[in-house]
């Protein structure tokens, strides 16, 4: 399964991707910075593992 990075738009793997839905730490931080400038209230969000069982057609 691949997702498109909302920051740079390239396709990246969803599974085994610690930065999902982004392609890399860089894009994740960029996105974080986008709204952290206004209101910083994300804390440890990336530390919660989510089991994705859904399969999209
Ligand atoms: Zn990216």
From TrEMBL:
GO terms for biological process: regulation of DNA-templated transcription. The keyword GTP-binding does not apply. GO terms for molecular function: zinc ion binding. Keywords: Metal-binding, Zinc. HAMAP family: DNA_gyrase_inhibitor_YacG (MF_00649). This is Uncharacterized protein. It comes from Desulfuromonas thiophila.
């Amino acid at each position: 399964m691949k997702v498109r990075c909302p920051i740079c738009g390239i396709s990246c793997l969803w599974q085994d991707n610690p930065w999902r839905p982004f392609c890399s730490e860089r894009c994740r931080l960029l996105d974080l910075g986008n709204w952290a400038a206004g209101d910083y209230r994300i804390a440890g969000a990336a530390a919660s593992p989510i089991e994705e069982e859904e399969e999209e057609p």
